[in-house]
């Protein structure tokens, strides 16, 4: 195994350990083809965040441009 692969594996493990466990989501089974409902069901997002996530790009840009929503 080339030395860089060991270094990459160590960095990946360090990255995974730095993420709080409650932030990690399990991946759906391979048989799941449609994950568009994930934002509503993951339990990580607030109702407002789900609303923003489900907003079309044109409306999102409009709300950002007028200052109704901020980045």
Order of helices and strands: HHHH
Low-confidence stretches: none
Question: Largest beta sheet, briefly?
Answer: none
Mean pLDDT: 91
Enumerate how many helices there are, as a single number: 4
Fraction of residues in H or I helices:
40-55%
- Number of beta-strand segments: 0
Summarize the structure.
The protein has 71 residues and is mostly helical. Helices cover 51% and strands 0% of the residues. It has helices spanning 3-18, 38-41, 47-53, 57-65.
Which short descriptors sum up this protein?
0% strand, 71 residues, mainly alpha
How would you describe this structure to a colleague?
This protein starts with a helix and ends in a 6-residue tail after the last helix. The longest helix has 16 residues, at 3-18. It has helices at 3-18, 38-41, 47-53, 57-65. 51% of the residues lie in helices and 0% in strands. It has 71 residues and is mostly helical. It is built from four helices and no strands. The radius of gyration is 18 Å and the shape is elongated. The mean pLDDT is 91.
């Amino acid at each position: 195994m080339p030395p860089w692969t060991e270094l990459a594996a160590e960095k990946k493990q360090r990255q995974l350990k730095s993420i709080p466990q409650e932030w990690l989501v399990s991946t759906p089974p391979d048989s799941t083809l449609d994950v568009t409902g994930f934002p509503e069901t993951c339990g990580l997002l607030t109702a407002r965040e789900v609303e923003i996530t489900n907003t079309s790009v044109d409306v999102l840009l409009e709300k950002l441009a007028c200052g109704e929503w901020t980045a």
